[in-house]
């Protein structure tokens, strides 16, 4: 452990860089509250999306890194701002127009369009917790509805009333003139309609902890700021929540970054040191547009898990968090295979190499062994040429390639075989486009079939790759990748593919000869 801790103190891996910043907060004395608090926030205005998962996954990676370099206990809170008023009805819910009459009500006061929970907010909170539980995250969930109503926020809300002018000064600097006239950090919840009101304050009584305002009909109301009768606008709420809980670290997307001085200013004005921040880049859909909860564009967590393991998604989240990344179907196979490459590398690495390996951060140091003896990309190609419709068919080929493998001994491979069948049917098969070979390619393919027919060497990746390589070279392919591209397009119906020697070893020499003959006879195109 000491060797790992020493390596972690100089590691360039981003979770350790962030963890060291959190530790620096307490270089003079440990936290009075007895622990370091990591927080992630969630706005349950729509169904949880994969970016929400990424925030918790990445924060957990930093938390685990912190636990290696420090003995201070940690907590992770997932906070849902479910008192937020529903400003628009999401497109991706059943019978959306039935929710129109509930606009501006807190999300936990809006009926659940799915009919399964007490409210829309409760439904989305449950979805989030189910997703997070799938990945085994250790976290504590806090609902803003309960946080406000139970009185846990009362002390900070009363302090907001006391320091109202100072907090307003921070906010007004960021607003246009017309918005300044109606703005208040406090949003009362109308006692009759239950809607969140965006109205100016007529009076804030710090001594009594009360606010006075007029509603849209001109009626005057006075409400206590405590007990869930009032909520804070979302930017003040961010900073006030940090102050109320004593948050030490929170990350958020680049779209929040311009608000950081506001969040920090609110927190400081309430007498608490702001947490450390980490701003990550946003995920993009296939059109390069930001993924949105309300639009439902991009991949969902459930969609990723239909085609690949949870660990592959965690691996994708680890990579370059400060770089915008396309989050679309075609990233899944690459993430699966790269994750297993890193697993295989891990045992042979020294302490510094291991803690810089993404799998250390994905598994919190308890890294499993990869039993994936066939890459996911190869399984996809095998599904293609074999016409397999179930993973049992794929296992027939796998056992010839790796006789010692089995679904029991290689559960990750068994799971991947099932995923590969599903992914192939949904994404590869509809896009396959075969072509006939040109004259040069036809001659090379006939030569390859002949050499395979005469081959009596070991049925192994490297030996067969050398044979394929030699055929391309002898037929004058320059660069040689043109030869491999021809193999993929003529035989597999794709412009990219696996190491072809490995493919032959897996699919079989005789089967590959038969495939080449079909390609030459025009039976594939």
Walk across the major sheet and give the strand order.
Answer: 3-2-1-9-10
Q: Give a count of the beta strands, DSSP E runs of length 2 or more.
A: 12
Helix content: 40-55%
In CATH, the topology of the largest domain is named Rossmann fold
CATH architecture of the largest domain: 3-Layer(aba) Sandwich
Please identify the structural class as seen in this structure: alpha/beta
- How many structurally independent domains? 4
Main sheet summary: 5 strands, parallel
User: How large a portion of the residues is in β-strands, by DSSP E?
Assistant: 5-15%
Average pLDDT score: 92
Query: How many DSSP helices?
Result: 23
Radius of gyration: 29 Å
Low-pLDDT windows of residues: none
The CATH superfamily of the largest domain bears the name HUPs
CATH class (first level) name of the largest domain: Alpha Beta
């Amino acid at each position: 452990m000491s060797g790992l801790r020493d390596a972690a103190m100089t590691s360039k891996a981003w979770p350790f860089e962030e963890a060291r910043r959190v530790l620096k907060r307490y270089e003079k004395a440990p936290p009075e509250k007895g622990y370091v608090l990591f927080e992630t926030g969630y706005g349950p205005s729509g169904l949880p999306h994969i970016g929400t998962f990424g925030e918790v996954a990445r924060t957990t990676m930093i938390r685990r890194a912190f636990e290696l370099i420090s003995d201070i206990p940690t907590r992770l809170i997932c906070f849902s701002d479910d008192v937020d008023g529903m400003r628009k009805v999401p497109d991706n819910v059943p019978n959306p127009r039935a929710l129109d009459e509930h606009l501006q009500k807190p999300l936990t006061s809006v009926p659940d369009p799915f009919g399964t929970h007490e409210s829309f907010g409760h439904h989305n909170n449950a979805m989030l917790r189910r997703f997070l539980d799938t990945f085994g995250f250790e976290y504590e969930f806090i609902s803003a509805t309960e946080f406000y109503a139970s009185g846990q926020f009362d002390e900070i809300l009363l302090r907001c009333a006391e320091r109202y002018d100072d907090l307003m000064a921070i906010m007004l600097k960021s607003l246009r003139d017309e918005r300044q006239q109606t703005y208040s950090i406090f949003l009362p919840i109308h006692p009759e309609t239950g809607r969140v009101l965006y109205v100016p304050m007529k009076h804030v009584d710090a001594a009594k902890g009360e606010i006075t305002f007029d509603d849209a009909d001109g009626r005057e109301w006075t409400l206590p700021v405590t007990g869930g009768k009032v909520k804070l606008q979302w930017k003040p709420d961010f900073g006030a929540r940090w102050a109320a809980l004593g948050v030490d670290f929170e990350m958020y997307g680049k779209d929040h970054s311009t608000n950081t001085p506001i969040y920090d200013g609110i927190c400081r004005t309430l007498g608490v040191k702001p947490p450390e921040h980490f701003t990550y880049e946003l995920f993009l859909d296939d059109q390069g547009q930001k993924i949105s909860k309300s639009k439902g564009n991009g991949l969902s967590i459930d969609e990723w898990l239909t085609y690949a393991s949870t660990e592959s998604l965690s691996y994708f989240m680890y990579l370059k968090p400060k770089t915008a990344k396309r989050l679309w179907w075609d990233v899944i196979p690459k993430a699966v295979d790269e994750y297993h490459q890193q697993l295989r590398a891990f045992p042979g690495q020294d302490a510094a190499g291991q803690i810089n390996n993404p799998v250390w951060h994905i598994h919190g140091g308890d890294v499993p062994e990869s039993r994936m003896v066939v890459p996911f990309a190869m399984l996809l190609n095998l599904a293609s040429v074999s016409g397999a419709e179930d993973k049992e068919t794929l296992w027939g080929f796998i056992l010839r390639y790796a006789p010692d493998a089995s679904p029991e001994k290689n559960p990750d491979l068994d799971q991947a075989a099932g995923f590969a069948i599903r992914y192939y049917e949904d994404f590869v098969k509809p896009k396959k486009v075969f072509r006939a070979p040109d004259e040069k390619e036809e001659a090379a393919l006939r030569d390859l079939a002949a050499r395979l027919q005469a081959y009596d060497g070991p049925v192994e990746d490297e030996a067969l790759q050398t044979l394929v390589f030699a055929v391309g070279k002898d037929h004058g392919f320059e660069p040689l990748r043109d030869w491999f591209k021809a193999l993929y397009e003529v035989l597999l119906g794709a412009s990219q593919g696996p190491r072809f020697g490995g493919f032959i070893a897996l699919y079989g020499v005789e089967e590959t000869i038969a495939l080449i003959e079909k390609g030459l006879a025009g039976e594939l195109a």
